[in-house]
Each structure stands twice: as structure tokens, then as C-alpha cells.
Amino acid sequence: MSSNSSLDRRLLATIGVVLVGGLLGILNSTMAAVATGTLADALGTSLSAAGWASTGFLLAVTATIPFTTWAADRFGGKRLWVAGLIVFVAGSLAAALAWDVGSLIVFRVLQGFGAGLLDPLVLILLARAAGPHRAGRVMGLMGVVLSLGPVLGPIAGGAILGASTWRAMFLVSVVLGVVALVLAVRVIPADDPAVPGPARLDVVGLALLGPGFAAVVLGLSETAGAFTAWQVLLPLVAGAVLLASYGMHALRRRAPLIDLRLFAGRGFTASVTIMGLGGLGLFAALFALPLYYQHAHGHGVSAAGLLMAPLGLGGSVAMPLAGRLSDRFGARGLAAGGAVLAVVSVYVLTRVDPGTPEWVTALAALAYGLGSGCFSAPTMGSLYRTLPPERVAQGSSVLYMLNQLGAALGVALVTLAVQGAGDAMSGLRAVFWLALGVNVVVLALVPLLPGRARAGVPVEVA
């Protein structure tokens, strides 16, 4: 009993330290997003130029993720985690000392490289620490970070800007990063030297997949008026060509950076698709609801951000509970119930107008967070019950990339819907109808998730 308790304590300590590090990138990106206007004024530049401080960070993150897939197995999770924290802290300190918009963008890109190492490593380290039969509860704890990070970031960013200068945002990241680094060195278990990773990097695959994925995200982030604008079409087309080229390359290579044969497994494909669609719907709501509060009820940016708290609170409550239950009862029932709740709650949001009481939208947002959490944590847990240990790094990267892609697409569609509609409310309703359709598709995919894992019985993967 004491041995098991000690193991559980070590596992909990590892989980806590990894989650602290995982929160860094989410908080930093969302804090900086609300500071674009402040940065433009302070550095004497345009809003579009200042916006590249956030865009450059995002592109660096997305381009680095495929490299992390290989490096996690080659150098070990702990070594790469420590390296990622060092790069992130160095980028944060440099960003705090930036002297013009050009230097800020460069240092934010450096930050993004560090976050690109950390973000998929969160999933990899947690999955390896938990094992397949505790994957649900551990991924549920990860869900608290995913749910609260996008909500807390703008609130924290607004509070810091109100009390200090923009440089303080990056100095806060330095302090948090140093704390995470010290804890990681002390707590995260050492890498097993007896398990060597792949010796050779798929350089061609990295040159195609990283820039291709980043180009698609860039195109989506530039969607300010229409998909037909050259600023959108050029990176989208370039990204599609690079990703298609990677697909042909990966199918010919024996050990590609990410093996596309993973998608031959029905459970794997269903899991990553649900998470990608879940990211699309959730981020669409995260960006649409503040606009609703501003346009329909006349709230300022800070008040609208605070009114988003129920959405994050719902996810942070549901994910740990649903993840733990999925380890015992399987993913399908919980995920189906969560998807149904998400569909019902988003349907309520499609009916809102300026006369709708704020408590109605707050309650619907809370229910959406609960529903999303109830299908997300079991889905992530089922993914890691499906993957053998040697595929965890690749599966984590696929999951993270598709979730990021869904989030970027959700934000782009909000922009298009609001700007393309005759009035803001019509555009916001269109966004909520889109989120409704996405969650209906999630519900349809739930039966394809892997069944309940049984001790001693491995789950087959194609």
C-alpha cells in the first residue's frame, strides 16, 4: 500500500509540474493577444505590425510541433522539456526588453519555439506517466489547463496592463517559467537511457510538414474579410501543397516523421477528429460570445472577458470528473452524453438576441463547457489507450496539430461570419449554428471511439 501511495504521489507531483509548464504557452499567447493595441501605441507602430508579435508566436509553435515528435523519442522527454523551458524563458526575457516592434516579433518567435516544444510534450509526458489505464483521469486534469487558459489569459493580461506596462506581461512569464524549470528538474523522472529513440531525423518530412502546417494556420489567421483575399489564399494553397507532398513522402518512407498509417485505426481517427472538431466549436464560441456581450449588451472588453468565465469553468469542472469515470466505464457513454449537452446548449445560443437576459447566455455557456469537457477528456483518454508506447509521441503531435487547426479555423469563421453578415447579431447566430453542426458531427463520431480498456488486454492499432 505504501509503495502504491508513493507512486501516486510521484505521479501527482509530475502531473502538477507538467501542467504548470503547459499553462505557460496558453497564458502567454492569450495575454499578448489583448495587448496588441497597447503594443502598437508603445512601440509607435501600426496595429497590423504589432499583431505579428502574436502571429509570429503562433507560427513558431505550429512549425516546431513536428520536430518535437522526433526529438521527444531521440533525446528523452525530460531533457526536451527542460530545453523547451529554457528557450521559452529566454524568449520571454528578451521580449520584455524589446526596443522596437521588429525585435519584439523576433523574440516572440523565440518564445514560440520554446512553446512548440512544451505544448505537445505536455500530452506525451502525461500519457507516459499515467499509462493506458489512468489516461482518462490524467487527460482530464490536462483539460483544466485547456479550459481555463484561454479564459484566464485575457483577464490576466488586462489586469497586468491596467496595473503596469506591457513589459510586465513577459516578465511574469519569466518568473513562472523559472519556477516551472526548477520544479521540472527536481520532480520529473529522469529519462530511461535503455530506451533509445530514432537515430535519424526525417529532414524532408520536417521541411514539408512544419512549414505546411504553419502556412495553413497563417492563412486562417489572416482571414479578415474573405477566403479569396491573396493574403489568405497564398499561404493556404502553399500549405496544402506542402502537406500533400508530405503525405506522398510519408507513405513511401519506412520511418516518417509522423506515420499516416496511424489513421488506418478507426479509434485513432475518431479520437483526433473529435478533438479537432471540438477545438473548432469551442474556439468559435470563445471568440463569438465576447462579441455578443459587447454588441448586444454594450459591455467593454474586460467585462465581456469576465462573462466568459462560465464557459471555462464548465470545462474545468467536467474534464477531471469525466476523465476519471472514463477509466472505469469507457469513453463512449460519457462522450455521447457530453456531445448531447453541447448540442442543446449551443442551440440555446443560436436563439439569443439583444433582449436575452445575460444569465441565460451564461448558463448556456456553462452547459457548453460541461458538455465539451465530458466528451473531450474521455476522447483523449481513449486515444492513449489505443496507442502503443512507441506511437505516443506521434499521436500526441497529431492530436495537438488538429486541435490547433480546428481552433484557428473556428476563429477565422467567426471573423468571416461577423464581417460578412448584414449586422453583428446575424453573424454571431451563424457562428453558433456552425458550432451546433460541429457538435452534431462529434455526436455521430462518438460510437467509433475505442471501447472500454480491460486490464491485461492490449488494444489493437492498425
Description of the structure:
With 462 residues, the protein is an all-alpha fold. It folds into two domains: 1-190, Growth Hormone, Chain: A; 258-462, Growth Hormone, Chain: A, CATH 1.20.1250. Helix content is 80%, strand content 0%. It is built from 16 helices and no strands. The longest helix is centred in the N-terminal third of the chain and has 32 residues, at 2-33. The radius of gyration is 21 Å and the shape is globular. The two termini are 37 Å apart. 55% of the residues are buried. The model is unreliable at 1-7 and 454-462 (pLDDT under 50). Keywords: Cell membrane, Membrane, Transmembrane, Transmembrane helix, Transport. It is a multi-pass membrane protein.
Summary of the model, kept short:
This is MFS transporter. This protein is mostly helical and 462 residues long. The chain has 16 helices and no strands.
What is the annotated CATH architecture of the largest domain? Up-down Bundle
Counting copies of identical and different chains, the oligomeric state is single chain
Estimate the global geometry from the Cα principal axes: globular
CATH class of the largest domain: Mainly Alpha
CATH topology of the largest domain: Growth Hormone, Chain: A
N- and C-termini, Cα separation = 37 Å
Sheet of most strands: none
Q: What's the helix count?
A: 16
Note the run of SSEs as H and E.
Answer: HHHHHHHHHHHHHHHH
- Which structural class do you get from the secondary structure elements? mainly alpha
Radius of gyration: 21 Å
Strand content: under 5%
Q: What's the number of domains? A: 2
Low-pLDDT sequence parts: 1-7, 454-462
Total beta-strand segments: 0
Question: Helix coverage percent of residues?
Answer: over 70%
Average predicted confidence as pLDDT: 80
What is the name of the CATH superfamily of the largest domain? MFS general substrate transporter like domains
